[in-house]
Task: inverse folding
């Protein structure tokens, strides 16, 4: 109890010095708890939605996915005849059954041809209005659709796009484009996570989405009183046979939730990873804080030892302070985490994914995990300073002494750091020399960890040299003030090294990702220049296929020399060595694709692969299965028959575009896949006549005006889109890394603030002999700048090394160009100087306000 009282008294006595460490713990715990609450809330939202929208038993057509997704390569949903509905109604235990039709392979546009699909990535659903939907939707304006000229829209989509009753919209599907007037607006009675939903009457939905009457994608079955879903499923299967997919409400909800959870887990663990980086940076802040506090309380600790306190009691006193700090910061962090989660929900709402705070989910494990994590990390970070405090001798109370510095431990630390850095460098070299990307990535990960730990441990050794160089280049111009700032930074290399290391971690990741992203863009651009021989590429950025009417519009565009169609077919291959490989894809294209993509071959000619009964395979596949030009491969098309195709070309693996693709002509595939099962085009390649590129480009965009879901790009557009996509991803990652950098800045502030307190008497003496307040503030600011630049130099150098190694692995995938984004690197380095200036504002201001006489009198 005495230890706890002493610790509490010390925390309250130095509360100003502890606050930044508490903020670091708070931010890190808040990010963890915010992530957990946000992802749990999203899971709850989708759970409620899927449970509410699932009928007791759902019968789907053969080929439908477990989650009920109805998209297919043909652009039409898989269907079953209306006779199935009649048979289901006769099954035992059925209270009612209703046939429905819906599809997500559609685009809906307004009268001005603006795409009404969600920008958040949520689906666009067009289906028939039915009793099951009426359970989760309430018509708030107008009426349900009746007849081919009426459509109903959900209220969220109507509000977002300013749609009103009577407005005309168009539904674009593989069948054609159907236009209708809005007859009603319906609101969700459960949370809508962002989907755009449109309803037609059943007959119109059949004609619009499938192109034929008397078919359904689903039959929704309601159980009679006292009949369980499992028993109802058995009865339905007994009645209709096993040629259809039959699922209970739980099975349907679980399948839908499985798809959502796979995405949510990526988001969850990715964000937790960045929170872990912030915690790692926070460790340096806490170590520095307690180390300096222990040094400043040497006399106090010595007196405690002199009056009988044991080493263990002193050690426990410091750890108890850390425990109180961690608990305080963690509890506040849990509350802040809930706020972060609500903020993320509001942000997602602006992006189109509507999440209600009514579904806010705070599992008991979230605050427990947050508090435990914050406390454990804080106590572990304070262990070394506590151990040093326990070694303060009673004699230290009789003289002006600091906590003992263990020179031998410093030498061992530096030697171990050099060994780890060297081992990490060797590991990175092995990764760069790897022949396979998978094996190389493991070595890269090990090299990153070893070099990071090595740099952290060798930081105090590096601080002496690097700070002197920075001082010579930047500080000497400020005269005596600059030299004093340099000496202050060198006074305690361990402290400078730890403070700089905190900033180093975040900037190392920024530099690494910048190099990787820039190299990917440069390499992909180079590949486009070397291999793409077409002028324009038409595609749907959402991945949906291109409907036939859009293909027809492209082919009718004036000024085009040729248009190449490109389809993807699933198949099972049986190779000459007798082995069977499933889930392979055959890229079927027109023969002109050999001109559109100049793919290098190691054997044969790619143009020959488009001859009837022919195909190509890629180099790795050929080596694995002993395939040569002239070999025969059995291709069992998933939606068709089995073909015996002759290999006419083997493409090189030294490419990034279409790497690992196997080609055949569309005409060859059409011999074995029925027309009604042939997938739609995934891409279109268009080449203009000589000298008509600009005219054809405008004409092509004009031809697709009625189909806003498709984008026309020339090579310049494609490069820009690639750069923008990678840039957006990097910006998101930089935003997440900002938390770690903020914590590192707090570390600089805290180090300077405690350093000012530690040097109070020295500052008073300097003021007494003529140092002005302005010069004092400048000295502290320059010290802060040099520490920040020290961390930036280490981080940027380390990150560029990681990025260069990663690029060597990307080269195995055909991305051969290493591009260092010097503008980004220089901007980050200069930004680090401003970070240093900002971090020094408060400590410098407080130092300047010191009373000279009181400062000199300080013990």
Result:
């Amino acid at each position: 109890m005495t230890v706890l009282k002493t610790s509490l008294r010390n925390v309250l006595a130095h509360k100003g010095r502890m606050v930044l460490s508490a903020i670091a713990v708070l931010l890190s715990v808040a990010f963890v708890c915010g992530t957990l609450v946000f992802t749990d809330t999203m899971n709850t939202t989708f759970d409620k939605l899927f449970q509410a929208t699932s009928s007791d038993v759902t019968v789907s057509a053969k080929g439908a996915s477990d989650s009920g997704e109805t998209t297919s390569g043909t652009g039409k949903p898989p269907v079953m005849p209306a006779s199935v509905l009649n048979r289901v109604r006769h099954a035992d235990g059925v209270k009612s059954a209703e046939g429905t039709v819906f599809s997500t392979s559609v685009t809906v546009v307004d009268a001005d041809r603006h795409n009404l699909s969600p920008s958040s990535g949520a689906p666009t659903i067009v289906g028939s209005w039915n009793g099951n939907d009426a359970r989760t939707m309430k018509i708030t304006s107008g009426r349900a659709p009746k007849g081919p000229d009426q459509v109903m829209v959900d209220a969220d989509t109507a509000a977002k796009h300013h749609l009103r009753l009577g407005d005309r919209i168009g539904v674009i599907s593989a069948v054609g484009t159907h236009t209708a007037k809005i007859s009603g607006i319906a609101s969700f009675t459960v949370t809508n996570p962002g989907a755009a939903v449109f309803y037609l009457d059943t007959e119109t939905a059949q004609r619009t989405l499938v192109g034929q009457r008397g078919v359904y994608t689903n039959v929704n079955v309601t159980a009679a009183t006292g009949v369980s879903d499992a028993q109802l499923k058995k009865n339905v299967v007994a009645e209709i046979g096993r040629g259809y997919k039959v699922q209970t409400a739980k099975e349907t909800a679980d399948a839908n939730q499985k798809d959502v959870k796979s995405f949510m887990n990526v988001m969850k663990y990715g964000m937790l990873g960045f929170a872990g980086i912030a915690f790692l940076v926070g460790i340096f802040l806490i170590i520095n804080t307690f180390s300096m506090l222990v040094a400043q309380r040497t006399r106090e600790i010595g007196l405690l030892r002199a009056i009988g306190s044991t080493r263990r009691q002193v050690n426990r006193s410091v750890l108890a302070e850390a425990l109180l700090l961690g608990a305080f910061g963690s509890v506040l962090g849990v509350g802040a985490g809930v706020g972060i989660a609500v903020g993320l929900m509001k942000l997602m709402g602006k992006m189109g994914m509507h999440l209600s705070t009514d579904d806010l989910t705070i599992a008991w494990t979230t605050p427990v995990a947050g508090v435990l994590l914050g406390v454990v990390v804080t106590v572990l970070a304070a262990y070394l300073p506590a151990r040093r405090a326990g070694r303060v001798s009673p004699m230290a109370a009789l003289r002006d002494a600091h906590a003992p510095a263990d020179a031998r431990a410093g030498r061992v630390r530096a030697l171990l750091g050099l060994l780890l850095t060297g081992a990490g460098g060797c590991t990175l070299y092995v990764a760069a020399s790897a022949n396979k990307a998978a094996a190389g990535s493991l070595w890269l990960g090990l090299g990153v960890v070893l070099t990071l730990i090595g740099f952290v441990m060798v930081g105090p050794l590096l601080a002496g040299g690097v700070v002197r160089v920075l001082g010579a280049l930047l500080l000497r111009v400020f005269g005596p003030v600059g030299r004093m700032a340099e000496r202050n930074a060198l006074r305690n290399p361990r402290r400078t090294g730890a403070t700089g290391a905190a900033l180093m971690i975040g900037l190392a990741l920024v530099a690494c990702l910048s190099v990787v992203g820039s190299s990917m863009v440069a390499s992909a651009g180079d590949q486009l220049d070397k291999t793409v021989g077409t002028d324009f590429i038409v595609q749907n950025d959402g991945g949906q296929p291109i409907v036939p009417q859009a293909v027809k519009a492209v082919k009718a565009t004036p000024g085009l020399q040729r248009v190449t169609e490109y389809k993807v077919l699933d198949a099972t291959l049986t190779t000459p060595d007798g082995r069977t490989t499933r889930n392979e894809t055959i890229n079927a294209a027109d023969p002109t694709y050999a001109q559109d993509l100049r793919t290098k071959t190691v054997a044969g000619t790619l143009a020959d692969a488009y001859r009837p009964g022919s195909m190509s395979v890629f180099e790795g596949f050929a080596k694995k299965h002993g395939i040569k030009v002239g070999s025969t491969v059995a291709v069992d098309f998933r939606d068709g028959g089995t073909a015996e195709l002759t290999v006419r070309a083997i493409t090189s693996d030294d490419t990034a575009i279409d790497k690992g693709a196997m080609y055949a002509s569309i005409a060859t595939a059409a011999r074995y896949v029925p027309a009604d099962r042939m997938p739609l085009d995934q891409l279109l390649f268009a080449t203009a006549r000589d000298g008509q590129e600009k005219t054809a480009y405008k004409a092509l965009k004009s031809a697709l005006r009625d189909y806003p879901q498709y984008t026309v790009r020339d090579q310049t557009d494609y490069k820009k889109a690639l750069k923008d996509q990678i840039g957006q991803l990097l910006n998101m990652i930089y935003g997440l890394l900002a938390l770690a950098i903020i914590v590192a800045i707090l570390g600089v502030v805290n180090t300077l603030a405690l350093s000012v307190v530690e040097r109070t008497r020295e500052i008073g003496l300097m003021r007494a002999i003529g140092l002005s307040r302005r010069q004092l503030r400048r000295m502290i600011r320059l010290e802060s700048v040099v520490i920040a630049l020290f961390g930036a130099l280490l981080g940027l150098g380390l990150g560029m090394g990681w990025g260069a190694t990663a690029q060597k692995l990307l080269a195995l995938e055909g991305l051969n160009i290493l591009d260092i984004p010097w503008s980004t690197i220089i901007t980050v380095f200069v930004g680090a100087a401003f970070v240093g200036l900002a971090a020094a504002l408060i400590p410098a201001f407080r130092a300047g306000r010191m009373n000279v006489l009181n400062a000199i009198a300080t013990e």
